[in-house]
Design brief:
Length: about 260
């Protein structure tokens, strides 16, 4: 199927994990892509792989916490492909870890900038370009942390990820009449390079514990989260807006 033929999409965090899997799937389903990431060589490699497979993608390396980068991504989509229909804002990270009293103000702000302010800046510039095309779909990738499960020492990350719900629902209400849809993906544990189970000092016991938090007793492959993103981005979800879609393997219900 080619659900995204004639669609133009921005995907941030496209150098690995969920972002890369989403970029590859969207390209395979017909979208023209503008891809963002901080690691320029890795981003170029993702674009090259998509191009070899017959897809269309352009790399724009940069920092999503900087407003000029958000402008550059949209400008590139408009100038190179003619507009913008879809945006998948995937960037995130745990930031400074520790109990509440130990978190520095600088660490708190940096974590919010990475996980929440970056999404705000992206949407601020994505929405006008979508309006010019008659509508569009914006996705924010959140986490079960801060949504359905609390984990100690992640207070900045949890607060920022929870904030994405307010961002998305308000966009959905403000622009719904103009055919802009905004939704949040809430993945469970996903087998990405940044997952704690893949840290150099991670043990098999840690992986078993994290997997056991989920009703399915495993982690997601990034491609499984990308398929949910495809649904929300496509016309199959034309009446879906202001929602949180849990793609969490049952971590929110497992005891």
């Amino acid at each position: 199927m080619n659900e995204l033929t004639s669609k133009i999409a921005i995907v941030t965090g496209a150098t690995s994990g969920i972002g890369q899997a989403t970029a590859e799937l969207f390209a395979a389903r017909g979208a023209a892509l503008v891809l963002s990431g901080r690691r320029e060589p890795k981003l170029a490699a993702v674009v090259a792989a998509i191009t070899r497979a017959g897809g269309r993608a352009i790399a724009v390396a940069g920092d999503v916490t900087q407003e000029e980068h958000a402008r550059d991504l949209v400008r590139t989509a408009v100038e190179q492909f003619g507009g913008l229909d879809i945006a998948v804002n995937t960037v995130g990270g745990f930031g400074e870890a520790g109990p509440l009293s130990a978190i520095s103000l600088a660490g708190w702000r940096a974590t919010l900038d990475l996980n929440l302010t970056s999404a705000f800046l992206g949407a601020k510039h994505q929405v006008p370009a979508m309006l010019a095309r008659g509508g569009g779909s914006i996705l924010f990738v959140s986490s079960f942390v801060g949504q359905t499960v609390a984990i100690a020492n992640t207070i900045g990350y949890a607060a920022a990820k929870a904030g994405l719900e307010g961002l998305a629902t308000t966009i959905a209400v403000e622009y719904g009449a103009q055919r802009i849809r905004a939704n949040v993906l809430v993945p469970g544990g996903t087998d990405t390079p940044s997952n704690v189970v893949n840290a150099p000092d991670a043990t098999p016991a840690l992986r078993a514990h994290v997997e056991g938090m989920h009703a399915l007793h495993r982690l997601a492959a990034p491609s499984e989260i990308a398929k949910a993103a495809l649904f929300l981005a496509s016309d199959a979800a034309s009446f879906v807006t202001g929602t949180q879609l849990r793609v969490d393997g049952g971590v929110s219900i497992a005891g």
